[in-house]
TrEMBL record:
InterPro entries: 2Fe-2S_ferredoxin-like_sf, 2Fe-2S_ferredoxin-type, 2Fe2S_fd_BS, Beta-grasp_dom_sf, Cbr1-like_FAD-bd_dom, FAD-bd_FR_type, FNR_nucleotide-bd, MRET. This is Ferredoxin--NADP reductase. Transmembrane segments: none annotated. Residues 2-106 form the FAD-binding FR-type domain. PANTHER family: 1,2-PHENYLACETYL-COA EPOXIDASE, SUBUNIT E, NADH OXIDOREDUCTASE HCR. The lineage of its organism: Bacteria, Pseudomonadati, Bacteroidota, Flavobacteriia, Flavobacteriales. Its cofactor is FAD.
Amino acid sequence: MSQFHSLTISHIERLTATSVAISFAIPENLKAAYTFKAGQYITLKTTLNADEVRRDYSLCVSPKSDELKVAVKEVEKGLFSKYANTKLNVGDVLEVSEPNGRFIFEPNAEKTRTIVAFAAGSGITPILSIVKTVLEEEPFSNMILVYGNKSKTDAMFFEDLINLKTRYGNRFHVHFIFSRTNEEDALFGRIEKSTVNLILKNKYKDVTIDSFYLCGPEDMIHVVKDTLTEHGVKDSKIHFELFSNPANSENTTIEVSDGMAEIKVIVDDESFEFNMNNSKTILEAALKQDIDAPYSCQGGICSSCIARVTEGTAEMRQNNILTDGEVAEGLILTCQAQPTSSKIIVDYDDV
């Protein structure tokens, strides 16, 4: 389970009118704790308006950079994102979790392959880490990026991507697509089926693509994934991560037994036994008992709250993270899972 540490902000960079990059100083004794894989995220924790607030942000640097940096885009009614963009200063201290996440790219310097990524908006953050890792650590591999935004001025890390293109030449191909402005050497519109077809069947029709990484709004990810599937790309080659709760999804109705369940929760080598109402999620019940269970988004889109059911059964309202195989092995997102048996044991340590 990821631990939190108090880290000091060492640098803040304005990326766009509504986004900033935040870097943290890592004490020497915590260097090992903050090693990470490309695509992973950290959770930032602080207190705002007397309430504890936790938010996940993907690391936007490569694992070899010796940096710990995230980018925060201000969103409408976003409590922490507005605070980060307008109030945070160098020298401020936040509680920062150790790196987490399953949306990862693991480099192999001996491989020769082509990786394709589709990103929209702030979905660029984990993708940028993957792009840099491919270019830095796989000298024989190529990277193709399709990156969508409203306009060039809204595009986070635009100059960084141009600089990477200049540095790595034909090993890095970036295609910008803007929905509100026409720009030279850029596509117009949004990332949609025709965009995927353009990449697969036109610009890179003779290229063998090893894997695809998708990050952005749910609608974009579904369109890209479905189109790739139509072209015969195997699910094992398609990796994706949502950066916000699905806007239009409805929770699955779960048939649960009436009344209460006897539950045992194991976390950090401690066991807690209590009764819980089956209408609540396992995470809700654990937090109500003041158990220090890991969590962040509470919306089923991060992997912070994963645990294993070792006895009994549970069903999830929604699942955007775990594979069918992992669910069959007993893994659950506790923020989405409700007991469907009268007794259940949930182990956060066994993941």
